[in-house]
Amino acid sequence: MQDLLNAATLGSIYLLFALGMALVWGTIGILNFAHGATFMFSAFVGHMVSRETELPFLGVIVIAVLTGAVISSLTMLLAFQPILKRSKNQHAAEMRILIGGIGVAAIPLALAQRETRSSPFGFKSSYKPEVFEVLGLRITTTSAIIIVTGLVMGIGLTLWLRRSRQGLALRAIGVDAETAAGMGVNRTALAFGTMAVAGALAGLAGALLTFQLGAIAPETGDQLVIKAFAVIVLGGLGSMAGTVIGAYVLAGAETFVVSMNWGTWVDAVSFGLIFLILLARPQGLLGRKEVRRT
């Protein structure tokens, strides 16, 4: 049971990180490889601010969330939007956006590595996690916050995308951007809003993981990009509910590997799941057979 609790905590971190990537990729068609750098640099800014003055838990979270939203919006404004304008169509822009994202990610990574000399960094905060027992299970307040936040964000974003007018507009862009624009959907404004939300989620995940582990390395975001990619493929591109399930399935599989003392195979689980899903069910667990970005 303790392993299940650990898997739920890890899965919630994967979920918060992957939700942003899945939202952007599944609606406006941008596979943002700078998402990991946004995650890391948001926590890094929290580290830099807290180094000057001790902050409460919520203070660090707010700084990381706002930083993530700003970085992601700037990435859209300075990198992806110019690429989209200069490309003949969305399909032609995809490879350029992918390469552009990798290039953008190198900038915050280099800044953080230079400042920290590639050493792990954490927060100077007044927050002190407590440990309590529930039905014989030991859980920290940080783990409880991560699990609740992950579930609330995952379910909330899924419902918002399905039932709200903005969510319907985003799904319409994912199906046919030109037709959606003809029906009055402002793709540019929604794209910036989507990128900001994705960045905020990355910042939230970065701050929570740093609180959970005590410190993260500048390269942590790059490792999570692969995990998020596996989660999205596993759940099915365009399905937010699939992303929720995929995050916990991947975390459960990795926790099982660790519990069996096969720790060196943990990273191979992500690639193995991608490979198996692509062979057996290319559309993912909850994806559709037809090509849709909804």
What portion of residues is helical? over 70%
Write the element-wise H/E pattern from the N-terminal end onward.
Answer: HHHHEEHHHHHHH
Largest beta-sheet details: 2 strands, antiparallel
Strand content: under 5%
Give unreliable regions as ranges: none
Q: What is the overall pLDDT average?
A: 87
Spatial order of strands in the largest sheet? 1-2
Strand tally, please?
2
Please give the count of helices: 11
Q: What does the overall shape look like?
A: globular
- Termini separation (Å)? 36 Å
Estimated structural class? mainly alpha
Q: Tell me the radius of gyration.
A: 19 Å
Word description of this protein:
Helix content is 74%, strand content 3%. The protein has 294 residues and is mainly alpha-helical. A hairpin with a 2-residue loop joins β1 and β2 (137-140). The mean pLDDT is 87.
